[in-house]
Amino acid sequence: MGYQQYGITPQLVERIKLKMKNAAAKERVKKLLDGLNKHDLQDSAKVKRLVKSIGSALHEKLTPAEEGQIVKFVLSQKIDPNSTLHLIKLWGMFR
């Protein structure tokens, strides 16, 4: 899996996936992600703030190392949230 190459553990991914099944948590995360564009997801400072905000919204304690790994992963994926193909690719990584 792609995220494991960045040191992100499958246990962390599974915990977050489980928390995202909660409708209230999912809505909080959706609000944080609303209006993001490709340029926002290539700005490391914005991505780091976003990772911290989402961690707080999901009541997930992330270590600075985990935050750094997630930021590196997001930046390297060059995600365009308006591209269906990019979103399908990401969905496939985390199914």
What key phrases describe this protein's structure?
95 residues; mainly alpha; 5 helices; 0% strand
Polypeptide structure, described:
- Helix content is 64%, strand content 0%.
- The protein has 95 residues and is mostly helical.
In short:
The radius of gyration is 13 Å and the shape is globular. The protein is built from five helices and no strands.
Number of helices: 5
> Which stretches are low in confidence, meaning pLDDT under 50 for 5 or more residues running?
none
Order of helices and strands: HHHHH
Strand content: under 5%
Mean pLDDT, rounded to whole units?
A: 89
Structural class: mainly alpha
State the shape: globular
In angstroms, what is the radius of gyration? 13 Å
Largest sheet: none
**DSSP, total strands:** 0
Ends distance? 10 Å
Q: What portion of residues is helical?
A: 55-70%
